[in-house]
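Here is this case:
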Amino acid sequence: MLRNIESEKWTEEITKGNISDISRPENFLAYFKEIGENYSTSDNQIRISGVYMKPPEYSWINLEFKFKNFEFTWDKHVTHEEWLQWILPE
């Protein structure tokens, strides 16, 4: 859970290198199927990117946001060792 979000920026990449600023897609979580990358650009800024699949359109969505504090949880995960053995979350 993120708290005290200071700013967020949404971008969409339909073809490689063609990035456009967008507003938050409607029903975003229903169509954001897989996180492809995530990284921190500073102590209080994160970028999460992944495939957005809302047929008939598919794109790569980036969300960058700055925050004051957060609590990060997830329902399913694998360890690095499991990932190397091709074990996927159930």
